Give the backbone structure.
Amino acid sequence: MARRPEPGEDLSRRTPLQPVDGLFVVDLRRCIGCHACSVACKVEHAVPLGEFRMRVRWMEDPSDGRMAFLPVFAAATCDYGRARRSFGMPPACVSACPTSALQLTAAADMPAEARPLGQPGSTKPGVRYIGHRPWQEAKLNAGAALHPDDEDILYEQGHSR
């Protein structure tokens, strides 16, 4: 793997590397719903308010009323951090996760318990989840995109409920 860039290093002078192929694995047992990954993605890609390449969904568990968190990725726009990976760096969302719940993993190293969401179009194909439950999939609606039936709260300007 390439060395990490030095602070202030001009990356335009570096020869881009071929990104290492990998897929996201999200361990929902570790996710605390902090939104660090979605904020990092928005900053990295200059995503405007109200639009999402990824977002952390907060959902109430129907069995006990506790909150559960589910990061979802927009199938059309998420590129697994290709630009950063071409310089030997992990995607911004992976770097920002304080609990290491989000990882970029080679397909051969994918944990056996990691499974895709069953609802087609709800998140980027290839993302695998550890610990997700069927009721979460039923509440996804449009996945990362905003949907009028979403129950979770949005904290962005002009989009709070």
